Amino acid sequence: MHYSVIPLLTGVRNPDQGIMTYQQGYGKPIWLPIYAFLVQGNGQNILIDTGLNEDEVFVPQKFTEETGLTAQPISDCLEDYGLATHDISVVINTHLHDDHCGNNELFTKATHYVQKKELEFCKNPHPLDHRYDTFFIEKIDFTTIEGTVEILPGIIGELTPGHTPGMQTMTISTASGPVILPGFCSNEKNFPKNGHVVCPGVHYDAFLAYDNAQKIGAKQGTILPLHALSIAGKTYA
Ligand SMILES: [Zn+2]
Hints:
Largest sheet: 6 strands, mixed
Strand order of the largest sheet: 1-2-3-4-5-6
CATH class: Alpha Beta
Strand content: 25-35%
CATH topology: Metallo-beta-lactamase, Chain A
Number of strands: 11
Structural class: alpha/beta
Number of helices: 5
CATH superfamily: Ribonuclease Z/Hydroxyacylglutathione hydrolase-like
Shape: globular
Bound molecules: zinc ion
């Protein structure tokens, strides 16, 4: 089974590069795109992550001037592809930070998948990780998975903790090979052409995050870092 993968730009923030790369790039402000990934195939419309909450979308003029891109509420992103929220049959979350599950509740017809450990941590997070807010998932009746699971034919979730306790890396089968969505917040700088994958700047266990990042970086396929600016507007099929 082959799918296409389209990053939908649901928001943008302007943090420090150090949020992405541990001990690297501190003091450098970046544009941080926030995506939901539309995956289509097998007669299904699937979302991996749901991006920034529709009510929080604010696009600085400077972002559009500098990048030629704009972000829009997820409903508008889907409309560009002739879809409405009720057309989404499956939602899979890489993890439950607010920039990855902000719109889950819009998808009332979908089955929602997440790793069991991630859901547990979201409901009882450590105070240091302020990126969890159960407000976004209160009404969701999640189907939880554990470990490595083929959620749909050709779509595999793999528990790869480090950035968060229950984050999962997604591998999606496409006609041109596997597309990999690392479960951790990252951009191009985390995946240099040579050398080690850079540990995510946000993590609950830096060693584990580093080790799993190397495993993800060694996978065969096209890696789409979850917050890479260079993947906006592209289709991977
Ligand atoms: Zn993120």
